[in-house]
């Protein structure tokens, strides 16, 4: 009897697991980043506003719940998933609907991992019930609500997934064309997958224009559209000022449009106007870490890229103190900010020792290979530009290349090494040998 019981218990365990595997939710979408990337994503997602009326609020909470689960905070995960269900209720103005399939799927997984198989099974049954009650309009396709959530999630998770995300959005929109925010995110995803700084095609520009007309409240989209118009040589000052006025009135969020607006100002108007804008925003919200991050970025641009005149000491002080604050406010996403700070110091006559100290600290810290590669690369450039230590610079480019991780840093370092070799430097034999023995990742 006991024997039979345990076989059937094992069988039901297997069938539970295969049912879980078949769910559409964050746990089955191959979102499996390293710990350090997860921690950075967590901080990034915290900066997406959670103000009432955000039509992605349910998706935001589902995503944050999943990240908390991955980081080992199961209670937080549960509370985020509950918040997601509540947000969907308000936004969709209904107690249930196909938008809960992903949420219930996440809960089924969470309870399974917590060892509560009965509760897990209960959520699986809820998913089944929803799928039966709200079948997809297209037989061999997922429900458009699921495609849309999957698309949005992939877009938020990684830059590389933007093309796949656009495809999912397209399917969702084909089946359910009346969701304004899907159209908006779709075109933003398309724009985001166009290579940085390149102009988008006329066809996409037109798509953006139409989406903007349909979704006039979305300032993030409006600013991105403005950026494209500026790229096409249109004058944009007037419109930018108008948008700035609106952005400043809205709640702080990484999708409020402020960051792309600062970029538009600094590229096409002037970096000082960008700085005035972010300082004004900070006056209204002095404790918002996201705004401090944006401000640090503006000051970095001013000091590092706009070197028409020597920045005055008060600008430098502000830049340094903002960077230090931001590094403390983002305990997991500070790497690039530390490098920025080192680069700011390096620009100053008296800052060489500080720059060197920051780099030494980073070089000695325990980093994942991809991060290590970035630090080596930045240090190689630093040695070349500010220390004129060409030999060590070459050594660091070699360290970059030796890490078997495909990235633009690796590509740049290998290209640099080849150039130095071809120029016939005294190290060209050594470089040649190094390149010959290099393993492809
Ligand atoms: C979304 O885009 C589709 C396809 O381009 C279009 O048919 C539909 O009208 C748009 N929906 C809204 C609400 O703008």
From TrEMBL:
* Keywords per UniProt: Immunity, Innate immunity, Repeat, TPR repeat
The signal peptide, as residue positions, is none
Cellular component aspect of the GO annotation? cytosol
- Domain of life of the organism encoding this protein: Eukaryota
Q: Name one GO biological process term.
A: innate immune response
Tell me which Pfam families the record gives. TPR_12
Keyword Repeat tagged: yes
Q: Which PANTHER family match?
A: INTERFERON-INDUCED PROTEIN WITH TETRATRICOPEPTIDE REPEATS, INTERFERON-INDUCED PROTEIN WITH TETRATRICOPEPTIDE REPEATS-RELATED
Give the UniProt family note.
Belongs to the IFIT family.
Q: What is this protein called?
A: Interferon-induced protein with tetratricopeptide repeats 1B-like
